[in-house]
Amino acid sequence: MKDYMQEALDLAKLGQGWTRSNPMVGAVIVKNSQIIGRGYHQQYGGLHAEREALKDASEQGHDVKGATMYVTLEPCCHFGKTPPCTQAIIEAGIEKVIVAAIDPNPLVAGKGIQELRNQLIEVETGLLAEESEDLNRKFNYFMIHNQPYVTMKYAMTLDGRTAAYTGDSQWITDKIAREHVHYQRHSNQAIMVGIGTALLDDPSLTVRIDDFEGLNPIRIVCDTSLKLPLTSQLVKTAKETPTIIATTNQNPQDHQAYQAAGCQLLVVNAKNDKVDLVDLITHLGQQGIQSIYVEGGSRLNASLLEAGLIQEIHTYIGPKVIGGFDQYSPISGFGFPQMDQALTSYIQTITPLGKDLLIESRVD
């Protein structure tokens, strides 16, 4: 049984980034100890995994009546972009459904399972539930907390520096690690930088990978006083790639040129003469943004850390040593005065990326 659910999980992972605000889901249909149908949610607005698996079985000429379906997330029971999956399962004559995890979406949250049971379909839950929940941790966090799951990313040398004293930082890591960052951009709904990074690097913050056309994230710039040049890459391409400028500037006249260029101006509260990040995250959650990948500098990282808004940290380490007194660190500010006050996390994975390392950790 675990092997069937593991295959469904492996299928679900293929939808990473493409499902956007929907969870990643995989499904397999088993009859007489043979897999007769496979499917996964391939893209937002497309067929859900259960319907894909039923379609696959049908196209292969298999009769699914009396079969067992393994699915990584509770089947939906409401109308959205597609009809309810429970309806398709019932009509197909599936006899048993094994579900990895309950869907935390209030529109589902056990209702899908109950609907199947009401139709005398046997349902079991909990098989590889932790793996399924981890796969959709960003979706789950948003559904539970109504705010985005925030991942902080930075690259540093072996001695913990993000740049030389001159400000030069190109490149700490090699191409493989930098390309991996672009996959992370594809895998998150939004990407965030501060105005310092926007002015220094003039980034496009899009997905650029050879032979891979990923989805660009929504771009968010924390710009307290509206210093972002109208000639910047972010503003010039705002009509092609959604761009949100978070500011405390409430003057509509100052907003007009940015709005004409296609930017969304999001006015938020101020805190210590900067964008109030808690207020910003709340607003972004209200807009339905479920995940944010932060590629900011040390000041934005420090502010997010102090506000308790970080759920995950990606640390890329290049095998270089800069040394010296005044070099940049990933997180600035005053920091925590005592070790027992430090943000604690647990290391989830350590992944070699060519000559570099990626440490992925989750905040406790």
Structure in words:
In the N-terminal section; belongs to the cytidine and deoxycytidylate deaminase family. In the C-terminal section; belongs to the HTP reductase family. Its EC number is 3.5.4.26, 1.1.1.193. One of its GO terms (biological process) is riboflavin biosynthetic process. This is Riboflavin biosynthesis protein RibD. The active site is at 50 (proton donor). Helix 3 links the parallel strand 3 and strand 4. The radius of gyration is 23 Å and the shape is globular. The chain has helices at 2-13, 49-59, 85-92, 111-118, 129-135, 137-145, 175-187, 195-201, 233-236, 252-260, 277-286, 298-306; strands at residues 26-31, 34-40, 68-73, 96-101, 122-125, 149-156, 190-194, 218-222, 243-247, 264-267, 270-271, 274-275, 291-294, 312-317, 345-353, 356-363. It has a 9-stranded mixed beta sheet with strand order 10-9-8-7-13-6-14-16-15. It has 364 residues and is of the alpha/beta class. The chain folds into 2 domains: 2-136, Cytidine Deaminase, domain 2 (3-Layer(aba) Sandwich); 146-363, Dihydrofolate Reductase, subunit A. It is 29% helix and 24% strand.
Characterize this entry briefly.
This protein is α/β, with parallel strands linked by helices. It has helices at residues 2-13, 49-59, 85-92, 111-118, 129-135, 137-145, 175-187, 195-201, 233-236, 252-260, 277-286, 298-306, and strands at residues 26-31, 34-40, 68-73, 96-101, 122-125, 149-156, 190-194, 218-222, 243-247, 264-267, 270-271, 274-275, 291-294, 312-317, 345-353, 356-363.
